[in-house]
Structures are given as C-alpha cells and as structure tokens.
C-alpha cells in the first residue's frame, strides 16, 4: 500500500474566501480561481508557493506495435539524442517557461551506450512485445519499471522540483495507451483508437484491429483485477514507469501536470494502484486522441488548455504552466475589496 497524503481542505476553504474578497466580481476569473484554490490546497497555504522549479521527465521506449505508426521505430532513439541536444519541441517550449527537461531511456530498442549514464540508468528492456499476440513485458518488469518511475520522481523532488510533468517518446505508443484505457474502462477498441502520429483511415482500422486482438487476448489470459498484470499484458515499461512517477509525485505531495494521451493512460492505471493519487494531478491540455478524453473523464480532470496538440513529450502540459502561475499571482497579488478607499 502506497500512502498518499490529502491536499489541505482548510487551505482550500481559506483560498476560496480570499478569492471572493478580491477586487473583482465573484467568480469573474473563472478557471483561474479554481486552479488557485487547488494549488493552495496542494501547498497547504494561502497564497500557494511559487512554481519556480518545473521538471519534465520524458520516458522513452519502443513498442512492439510500432508498425501501425506513420514513423519507423528508429525515430525513438534519434529523438533521445535530440532531447539531449535541447532541440526537441518540448525543449524549446519548456525553455519559454523556465522548465527543465530530462530524458530517460526506459525501453528504447537501440544501443544507446554513447549517451550519458544517467539517461540509461533505469533501462528495463529493449522495446516491448506486440500486444496483439503477446505480452508487452516479461513477469516482474512492470513492477521494476513502476519502481523506476517512483525513484525518478523522488530524485527530481529531492533536487527541488515543485511541479512534475511526465513526458513520453516512443513510436507507436498511442496504441498501448488506447489498449490500457479500453481495458481499464471497459471500452471497445473503435472508441479509443485515434490517428496517432497522423495515419490515414486505413491505418486507423489496422490499429483498431491490433487493439481489439490485444483486448481479447488479455480478457482470456487475465482476471482483470491486477493493474500490474494489465501493464504487463497491454502496456509497456514506459507506461509502468510513468504510472510510478505519477503515484510518487502524489505520495510526496508534489503537484503533477499530466500531458496527453500517454500520461492519461498511465494515470487511469496508476489510480488503480493508488486511488487518492488523482487528487494531486491536473490535466495540462486536451489531446486530439480519443482515449485521452475517456481517461480524463474517468479521472474527473478538466484540461487547462485545448490547443489541438498531439506532439507528446510533455509539450502540451508545459504550455499550461503560465496559466498555473497566473492563478497563483491572482490570489497572491490582487488587492482586496475591503481595502478600497
């Protein structure tokens, strides 16, 4: 059992009272007020602490079903080097808000011996099984990856992180994400499968077939009650590591800003492991992938932004950081109606 603290309800109440007393009509700042109260509860104080140290951790790995993607799996290894060079989409966008980006090779199907040791320190395996015909992971690997994600979250928090963002990089990863959401929420493949990196309708039909076969195989082989069995059968080492990252952020009382479809899928599984962890998560943005919409609805999370993004990497969540900072500024710096002359 992983112990999850609860956000401070008294701080939330005090925040709502202060927001109502600011120099504005009641509720005039809409979602910003809701986010400000959420942050106060998370930090246990009014106003909440500044969000100065934002950390993005990109979990990189390949997937046995990458043949349904518009890009070859070799792109994953190449992108690890792009992250390290600071030239990826999330690097550029994170730089605009002062966030730090770290990439971790959890399951890239390549020899990355030339990259720094801290990138490779948590590697579980090379790639994963093709979930339509076999399990994604070997026995024990899902728990090992989950523990790796927890350790990575602990390291970022120990280094000063006050907001965590899970990123993802892996060609084909929207397929296991769709399978995880479908299996967890009891949905058919056709409802959760999208176009991923930009496949056409024929490609989407192939992807639906893969997910359908994966769900049928899982239903026959497992009893459906153990989230680690689910991650083993239909997920990936990256999904398990992301789930561990999300849970440990909550266990340490540090807010986590979810990104798109992949972190949404990891989150619905992580909630099965630690139900109260969801209280520490926010949804950074709305992905174009249908499985994310189902995941966020199940988690009770409303995306902060809707920009039509589908890059992954943590890039969408990074764009929500200024909104969170604006919410904090509102409650910290606006004047009070009672102080008007």
Automatic annotation (TrEMBL):
<keyword id="KW-0808">Transferase</keyword>
<dbReference type="Pfam" id="PF02277">
    <property type="entry name" value="DBI_PRT"/>
</dbReference>
<dbReference type="InterPro" id="IPR017846">
    <property type="entry name" value="Nict_dMeBzImd_PRibTrfase_bact"/>
</dbReference>
<dbReference type="GO" id="GO:0008939">
    <property type="term" value="F:nicotinate-nucleotide-dimethylbenzimidazole phosphoribosyltransferase activity"/>
</dbReference>
<protein>
    <recommendedName>
        <fullName>Nicotinate-nucleotide--dimethylbenzimidazole phosphoribosyltransferase</fullName>
        <ecNumber>2.4.2.21</ecNumber>
    </recommendedName>
</protein>
<dbReference type="InterPro" id="IPR036087">
    <property type="entry name" value="Nict_dMeBzImd_PRibTrfase_sf"/>
</dbReference>
<dbReference type="InterPro" id="IPR003200">
    <property type="entry name" value="Nict_dMeBzImd_PRibTrfase"/>
</dbReference>
<keyword id="KW-0328">Glycosyltransferase</keyword>
<comment type="pathway">
    <text>Nucleoside biosynthesis; alpha-ribazole biosynthesis; alpha-ribazole from 5,6-dimethylbenzimidazole: step 1/2.</text>
</comment>
<comment type="similarity">
    <text>Belongs to the CobT family.</text>
</comment>
<dbReference type="InterPro" id="IPR023195">
    <property type="entry name" value="Nict_dMeBzImd_PRibTrfase_N"/>
</dbReference>
<keyword id="KW-0169">Cobalamin biosynthesis</keyword>
<comment type="function">
    <text>Catalyzes the synthesis of alpha-ribazole-5'-phosphate from nicotinate mononucleotide (NAMN) and 5,6-dimethylbenzimidazole (DMB).</text>
</comment>
């Amino acid at each position: 059992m992983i112990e999850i603290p609860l956000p401070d309800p008294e701080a939330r109440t005090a925040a709502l009272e202060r927001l109502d007393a600011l120099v504005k009509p009641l509720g005039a700042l809409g979602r910003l007020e809701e986010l400000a109260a959420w942050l106060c509860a998370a930090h246990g104080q009014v106003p909440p602490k500044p969000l100065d140290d934002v950390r993005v951790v990109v979990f990189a790995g390949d997937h046995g079903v990458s043949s349904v993607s518009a890009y070859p799996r070799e792109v994953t290894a190449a992108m690890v080097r792009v992250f390290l060079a600071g030239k990826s989409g999330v690097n550029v966008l994170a730089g605009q808000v002062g966030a730090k980006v770290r990439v971790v090779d959890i399951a890239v199907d390549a020899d990355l011996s030339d990259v720094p040791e801290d990138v490779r320190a948590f590697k579980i395996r090379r790639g994963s099984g093709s979930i339509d015909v076999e399990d994604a992971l070997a026995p024990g690997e899902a728990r090992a990856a989950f523990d790796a994600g927890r350790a990575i979250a602990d390291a970022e928090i120990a280094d000063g992180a006050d907001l965590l963002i899970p990123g993802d990089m892996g060609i084909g990863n929207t397929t296991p994400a769709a399978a995880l959401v479908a299996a967890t929420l009891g949905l058919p493949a056709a409802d959760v499968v999208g176009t991923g990196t930009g496949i056409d309708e024929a490609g989407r039909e192939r992807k639906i077939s893969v997910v359908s076969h994966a769900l049928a195989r899982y239903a026959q082989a497992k009893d459906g009650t153990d989230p680690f069995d689910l991650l083993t059968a239909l997920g990936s080492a990256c999904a398990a590591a992301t789930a561990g990252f999300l849970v440990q952020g909550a266990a340490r009382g540090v807010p986590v800003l979810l990104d798109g479809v992949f972190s949404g899928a990891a989150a619905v599984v992580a909630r099965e492991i630690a139900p109260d962890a969801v209280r520490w998560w926010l949804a950074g943005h709305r992905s174009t992938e249908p499985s994310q919409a189902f995941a966020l609805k199940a988690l009770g999370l409303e995306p902060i932004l809707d920009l039509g993004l589908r890059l992954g990497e943590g890039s969408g969540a990074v764009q929500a950081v200024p909104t969170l900072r604006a919410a904090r500024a509102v409650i910290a710096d606006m004047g009070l109606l009672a102080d008007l002359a």
